[in-house]
Amino acid sequence: MASGVYHGINPGMGWPLAVSAALMDRAPGSLRRALLALAAGHLLAMAVILFPFAALMFIAAWHEEIRIVASCLVIGLGVYLLINRRHPRFLARVPPSRLALWSFLAALAHGAGLMLVPIYLGICASGPPEAGHAAAATLMGRNLVLAAGVAVLHTGAMTLSGGALAVAVHRWFGLRFLSRSWFNLDVVWALSLMLVGAISLLVGH
Amino acid sequence: MNLRPDPTFHASPKLAMQAPVETLAFTLMLSPDGSQPDGVAVVDVDPSSPTFGQIVHQVIMPNKGDEFHHFGWNACSSSLSPLSGHAFLERRYLIVPGIRSSRIYVIDVKEPRDAKIHKIIEPEEVFAKTGYSRPHTIHCGPEGIYVSTLGGGGEDGTDGPPGIFILDCETFEILGRYEMDRGEQDKHYDFWWNLPRDYMVSSEWGLPPQFENGIVPEDLLSNKYGHKIHFWKLRERRNVQTIDLGANHQMALEIRPAHDPSKDYGFCGVVVDTTNLQGAIFTWWQKPDGTFEAKKTLTIDPRPEAPENLPPLLQGFGAVPPLVTDIDLSLDDKYLYVACWGLGEMHQYDVSDPMAPKLAGKVDLGGIARGTPHPNGKPFAYGPQMVEISRDGKRVYWTNSLYSTWDDQFYPGEGGGQMVMAHVGADGGLELDKDFYVDFPKGYRSHQIRLEGGDCSTDSFCYPSA
């Protein structure tokens, strides 16, 4: 939930595009449509990252190893983003009419999906201990549902917080708020990735 | 990288108009015969300053013969779209290309009165990485810094068509050509775009042999200069439509889209109609089905003149053509300024109805066979040419040189570089400021002007004013 709000209020994840869409078309409905497209792209990016991990989790014996690998991946991406502050240029090639695609690619490229993996693994591990003895198929089903739940909850929180900001800017605050409230979160973002990874590593041991 | 967006980035044109006014201008200085290196003059435009109307700093280049013409910023308000990922760039560098040398200078103006060269891209690198030559218009946009060129490869720039290439907006490395499908585009001049609507418009002057050694009258009279405008899917890098304005509409130069991106039209200035010597403005617009159309919405008549008063080039015509060489649109999309470099007039048109421009103001200054002096009594060489409008729309600045070799053909024997400023009345109208008259150092001419913090031909906006 918290990670969703965090992603949502970050202008870099797209809410200003919803404001722009509403102003361009002079129709508040366009704001809703743009938010939905952004949410769909983000949700898909979460799913693409989380589901493989969910599938792997049925190998109950490897929980520990998977968790360590995932944590290291997240920390690694954080370190990479800290050193390389440049945003991938291919994102600028996506036309404004394809917001879902842009949102999907942006979430993947900035590791928004990967950030959820340690959180998800943490939730899996905190499940009832007897789950470990359940049939593999049941376990896998439970993991997939959990993954979907995490992705939906996260995207929901993100869309609500980003949407609230977009509506507020569109109706009350005005566009001036956009440049005033936009902070460079690149470093904070990279550090958050490293932090999430580190917590996951430590909790696991 | 900044922690907040640069304070000179504005979400909408309306917000840009409300921003603090400019106190400095950057104006290009060019040595027409290449005897001195070109430079960038920093001009004090703050009326409360003791050095108002004076050049307070000069950045002089280490090379000669660059011939500066147009230039632009490394970053502008277009960075405020999350799509680009460039929200924290600084508006700090001026990208200044030499159209004769193909060399590109990056000037650091963070401390404007101590501006200095940050990087030089040598011509060989431009040729090798792009196959283009003679870089011209600069715009900052989604993929970095876009640079239009006037020439293709080879010694005279006719080996392959000219086009646009992209510079990295942080390292200023050349990334490569822009075009993936140029359609029938084979000449180039200006370009600009509408970012949310994802289209670009480009125009045509002529190929290097048609301008470098002066205008070629035979080519002009046989309609061989550019007369088409091209519409592109900006991010697909594809020419989707070409509109021929008619072969007699020679030299379609400046492209000025409405600044408010929710408006779907713009303007293009045509230097001369070879059937009647008129200058013209075309209005182009996007139709609901996404295709484009263009229509001539304004003509400016030539002025009859006795042949003995005319330069040899024009004696056969017995008239002074207006020569619409530059146009600029105020940020509220209300006034279009049209430089009539031949007549020696700056026109102001109310284009609230873009299909029916109405003359709202006019200033006489310089001009072929007329040479109207400045109200302060001093001479103004050539005619009003490169024009730039303050963000708030209240002041209009312009200089006088068109292009070294062309100046000498249309105004033989004249010389000098001047920059002047006019005030815009509350309901239109245009009046020269008696106290603002910049006379450039001996041997220099003046060309494009950029205003501190952005102006009316640099910034592209991602959000409508409404």
TrEMBL record, chain B:
The entry's family comment says: Belongs to the selenium-binding protein family.
The name of this protein is Selenium-binding protein
Q: Which organism is it from?
A: Meridianimarinicoccus roseus
InterPro entries hit by this protein? Se-bd
SUPFAM superfamilies found in the cross-reference section: 3-carboxy-cis,cis-mucoante lactonizing enzyme
Can you name one GO molecular function term for this protein?
selenium binding
Q: Give the lineage.
A: Bacteria, Pseudomonadati, Pseudomonadota, Alphaproteobacteria, Rhodobacterales
